[in-house]
Amino acid sequence: MGIRAMVGNLDHPATIARLSGLATRVIHLAPPPSEGWSDTRTHALVRALRLRQSPVCTVYGSTSGVYGDCSGDWVSETRTVDPHTPRAHRRVDAENRIRFWGRSASTRVSILRIPGIYAQDRDGGTPRARLLKGVPVLRDADDVYTNHIHADDLARACCLALWRGAPQRTYNINDNTCLKMGDYFDLAADLYDLPRPPRIARSTAADQLSLMLLSFMSESRRMDNTRMKRELGLRLRYPSVRDGLALCAAAPPRLR
After folding, report:
1. Residue 197 falls within a domain, yes or no?
2. Is the pLDDT of residue 87 over 60?
3. How far is CA 119 from the centre of its chain?
4. Beta-bridge partners for 58
5. CA-wise closest residue to 115 among 51, 69, 175
6. Tell me, what CATH number does 125's domain have?
7. pLDDT of 124
8. Strand (E) positions, the chain?
9. Is 4 part of any domain?
């Protein structure tokens, strides 16, 4: 297909120096390091790309976690970021670094804020394993809104942003679903023909759930994807999680 593959390690910047001058369009999906408050990997990539002629455009895959807890409000890209976790702070740092570089190097940068990704052939990409373990969810009175995107729709959004993304523009990349987390797992359980997860109060959640799960259950927002549809022109193949999970549930067990 005319693709030239190169191997590099963003934790060892010397291995990616040769990207400079070769990359004309960049999709940057590497996660930040697991510790600290800054994203040294994005810094290393930007430093390598600016050595010679900069790319025409760069797409960075960030996270919806940069918004923090929005108390269930609808969230557009104009909302001020308010990260509540170290990993969200690292993503904000990455966004700022790559946006500043884009302006200084006259490179068109698109930042995609991505929520929960799911797909039948993705490791941990469906709720089936969690449902089989019987992990509890919050009762409705304490529950939070959650957002999703199918991996195939995310891939298409990345490609469209390479060509249609406006300069230094941010996009929410999510489907049309508006569900609380518990309702999402109830829906998945019904589709997989599994028992619905038990519901618990937030006051007892700390005794039964991991810190990672608790952090996800402490933030509630409903993401507005109008800009994604209008400017990128993305027509979702899976407009709701019901559409995507129904396909996952119908797949052979090895793909679940």
Report:
1. yes
2. yes
3. 13
4. 26, 109
5. 175
6. 3.40.50.720
7. 80
8. 25-28, 57-63, 74-75, 108-114, 116-118, 137-138, 145-146, 148-150, 169-172, 179-180, 199-200, 222-223
9. no
